[in-house]
Structures are given as structure tokens and as C-alpha cells.
Amino acid sequence: xxxxxxxxxxxxxxxxxxxxxxxxxxxxxxxxxxxxxxxxxxxxxxxxxxxxxxxxxxxxxxxxxxxxxxxxxxxxxxxxxxxxxxxxxxxxxxxxxxxxxxxxxxxxxxxxxxxxxxxxxxxxxxxxxxxxxxxxxxxxxxxxxxxxxxxxxxxxxxxxxxxxxxxxxxxxxxxxxxxxxxxxxxxxxxxxxxxxxxxxxxxxxxxxxxxxxxxxxxxxxxxxxxxxxxxxxxxxxxxxxxxxxxxxxxxxxxxxxxxxxxxxxxxxxxxxxxxxxxxxxxxxxxxxxxxxxxxxxxxxxxxxxxxxxxxxxxxxxxxxxxxxxxxxxxxxxxxxxxxxxxxxxxxxxxx
Length: 351
Fold this sequence. Notes:
This is Core-2/I-branching beta-1,6-N-acetylglucosaminyltransferase family protein. The chain is an alpha/beta fold. It has one domain. It has helices spanning 4-26, 36-52, 85-92, 134-149, 169-176, 206-210, 238-246, 251-254, 270-278, 311-318, 337-348, and strands at residues 71-78, 99-105, 153-160, 164-165, 235-237, 289-291, 328-330. It has a 4-stranded mixed sheet. α3 links the parallel β1 (71-78) and β2 (99-105). The relative contact order is 0.14.
């Protein structure tokens, strides 16, 4: 009996290496979560943006001159260098009164700031990580900053460092601001334009993604029949962007950590679910960003390499089943920059 404590202690000591070896395989992986200080910072930003939007247009942007033309706010969400900045520079060239740029760069990543029109466009950023609600927070932070910065920002296009434009700026601008066909639409006349965001309700992975945080944890705010899947990248109207940063009810659910990391893609669920529940007729239900999921690995889409690039590929990527052609595409490796620049004037920006 006197040896029992010694035996127990010795057994525990021996089990420690095994615990460190197998614990990562048994326990759910830990991800970066939205801390309370970050949450409070965001809420303060969201309130300022909401209050500022109550005033009529006419304020002076910190990043561009005042003019009466509606603008597209391009929101870059990145954790690496903006490899395709030179291509986007050509895209924006000559249109400074029609756009603004905002960049959320993960602060833990060492990023070389690009120059030109991207200079000084970085916003106050927080840590982000895949399969965590931090990506939702980053997108909301970009939306709020753009709403607060310039009252003429009318559309908000979220893109990544791996995205490229598929058309000229004129084509993109005119496509997005094209008057909708009101005769065939039921969406409210309060919104003269609709948001371009993918909203899917019949995907086979829907049940697993709904229960990623645990069974019934999304209830009562989000019943299963209201849960949606969509693309992480979108183009939202100003009204819908305000709707996103004002939301508190659904955010409380989507900020919960996932137990099943394989089915956890909060940024692909939160935005389509929220907008589908609040204003389904105000959304087109499809995205303007082309992604190739054939041959995807570990949840990542196909990455195009230089040997795949050609004028035929650009035309293929533009093709859509909707009334709009795709305006952007991802995902491209960084070494695609030179061949894309070689095709820019004669192919990509020649509509």
C-alpha cells in the first residue's frame, strides 16, 4: 500500500509524453478567436460607421477627393504580399474618382507594402486565421472602415491577394452599377441595386457545416432551414454593408468556436445566411468571383500556374451561367504576375 502513491506518480510521469503525442489528434484544434478587446474595438468602429451613415452624402474622404459619383470600395483581405498589385494598378489607372482601396493585412505576417494607389491604404488590422470567425471580423472591419471613410462608396467588393480582375475597370464599374431589371424582380424598391453574393441552400455538406459548433448550438436564432453556404468573396451594396456591421444577433452564434474543424468555414456561412434571412430579394444569389473547385485540396480551390495561363483561359473564366459575366477570378500563384501583365492590355482589359 505504501508504494501506491509512488506507482501512480510514476505512471503519470510516463503518460505525459503520450499525452503530448496523442492530444492534438484527439482534442479539437484550437484556433485564433475574437478576443474581448478586439470585439470592443470593432463595436466602437461599427457604431461610428453606422452613425456617420445617417448623414447625407457630402463628406470628404481621407483617401480621395470629394466628387458626386458613386464609387466601388475594393476591400483586400490578405495575409501575404499583394503579389498582383501591379496588375491592379493597371486596372485602376485613370479612374481615381470612381474607387477607393482598403487593405486588411494580418499583423502577424510580414508584408511588404506596395506603392502606387495601394500606398497608405492599410487599415487597423487584427489577427486572422482560416476556419475561425476572425475572417468574418476582418471583412466587417473593412466594410465599416470603407463606410466611415467615404459616403460615396456605394458598392463594396471583397477580394483576396490571390484575386485578379477579368475585365477593364469601365466594364466592371458599368456592370455593377447597371440598373436592375425591376420587371422580373421582387426585391424592395428601397434598394435600387442588389448585392452579388453566392447563397446556396441545397449543398450536401450543409448538415455538417451547420453542426460544426455542436448540435443545436445555432438555435434558436438560426434554424437549419435558414442556414446557407456561399463564397467568402462578394460585392455588397451600401445598405447591405450597413446591415452586416449592425448585426449582433447572428454574430453571437457564428463567433462560437468549432468542434469539427473539417466543416468550419464561418466566413462562407455568416454573410450568405445573414443576408438570406434579412433581405433575400435584395441579393442576386450568385458571386462575381470565379473559383475553380475541380481538384481542390484541403478546402482550397485549384491554383492556376503560369503554364495554364492563356487568352482562352481568361475568356473561359469570364463565362457565367448568370446574366453577368464573372468580373474577378482566383486563385493564382504569385509567379503568374508576369504572364498576366503580358496579357493585360491585349486580353484582360480588352472587353
